[in-house]
Amino acid sequence: MRFDDLKLTRLREAKPAGWEPDAGIQAESFQCPGCGSSLTIRAKGHTETLACGTCGSIIDITDPNFRILSKFKARIQHEPLIPLGARGKLAGVEYEAIGYLRRCVTVEGVDYEWSETLLFHRQQGFRWLVEYNGHWSLVQTTTEPPRVTGYGAQGRATHQNQIYRHFQTAAAKVSYVLGEFYWRVKVGERCEISDYIAPPFQLSQEKTDREIVWSQAEYVEPETIKTAFQLEQPLPTRIGVGPNQPSPYDAQRPKFRRLRWLFLGSLLLGQIATLALSSDQRVHQQTFVFDTETRDKTLTSEPFALSGRDSNVVIRAETNLDNNWIYLDLALIERETGASVAIGREIEYYQGVDEGERWSEGSASDEAVLSGIPAGIYYLSVEGELPPASPTVTCTLTVFRDVPGWSNFFLALLGLLIVPFIFFWQARAFERARWAESDYGPSGTGETNDDDE
Fold first, then answer.
1. Bridge partners of 28?
2. Quick check: 195 and 174 in contact, CB under 8 A?
3. Given this model, what pLDDT does residue 442 score?
4. How do residues 301-331 score in pLDDT, each as one tens digit?
5. CA–CA separation, 394 vs 334, rounded Å?
6. What is the mean pLDDT of residues 44-65?
7. Would you call 123 exposed, middle or buried from its count of C-beta atoms within 10 A (0-12, 13-18, 19+)?
8. What stretches of 251-364 adopt beta strand conformation (E)?
9. What pLDDT, in 10s, does the model give residues 89-101?
10. Which residues contact 102 (CB under 8 A, 6 or more apart)?
11. HSE (CB half, 13 Å, CA atoms) of 105?
12. Which domains can be identified in the chain, with CATH numbers?
């Protein structure tokens, strides 16, 4: 199981019992009873504990004597990305950062940590900003628990008519705390977290021995965080795909779909116009005989006229070949100028019966296309090469002018289909990167579940 995309979670209800809006909240400073450091209470009356970053004391700020509830020793002193006391407007509400904690899960002896910043607003209450690998989400507890069905890869949670897919479940613990919290937080506090995603949203269930709490998260772009809190230092670079990170391809789908139908319609109209404007006229037909008398001789056709705009000429050959071949040296020559277009065509046809099964190979007919031929009086120059002792071969050549072609249409259609394929492949690769970090990725307990991509 991999935990490289982590938990958007809550340990307690966002509003303590008896919570009411209070327009008169004032910050209050006091000295830490453990080390004497200056500490500030920013949400007095709404929070219960405050963690001192200097000595690791967790203080009961509801006690007039500021009783120390516990102490912890941190291997690393963490500095919040959003300084405590910083204010920023998110979703139209100005919040103040009052608390910071880190949580982690341990997999095969390796700790995977993420940070959670507690935000407070006197009317809106508490929210969390959760960051892992440069991915941010704004989190709040839900008023009603979602309906959960299925198990494992088939697990689903339904909330406000939105279906969320199970992403992963893990046992997490608090590894570091700093600032104020609305419950009696302590380092080492554990819970089981189950995440369900429907990007850009995510539902998380936190389960302890005493209670189950659900929260909903919405993905926030890092630049939004940086702007909201006017942070000068660059935020961590995003690594990988976040569990609830919206796919950039989802927003492009409607536009892409409209353009696809527009191009397809234009292509069809263009082909219809080509069919309507093409004359598809038969201008000449003549039969040539190739035998011992005509061997190594050049035969010429009667003259014929090609009229109209520069267009194609199609030369169709019909032969009586049977278990034989012929090679034709053809040249279309303009009588007045001598300008010519030469082309060589090999025609072969074999057939027979093998163990009661009839088979055939090749064809007794052929077609050559010459493009961009101007109007004029033309004739065909024909020379045939046959195998030794070949029977007489007759070849009827029919010349057509301005024949509508389908090759360009199908090439354009193929190109039109390649673009959606590339788009689909990129979108699928994005989703695979997302689910590779779930319980169902390559290193998880199941396979990547991408049936809804």
1. 41
2. no
3. 65
4. 999 999 988 999 999 999 999 999 999 999 9
5. 25
6. 94
7. exposed
8. 281-290, 299-300, 304-306, 311-319, 324-334, 340-354, 357-362
9. 999 999 999 999 9
10. 78, 113, 114, 115, 116, 174, 175, 176, 177
11. 19
12. 28-246 (no CATH), 279-403 (2.60.120.380)
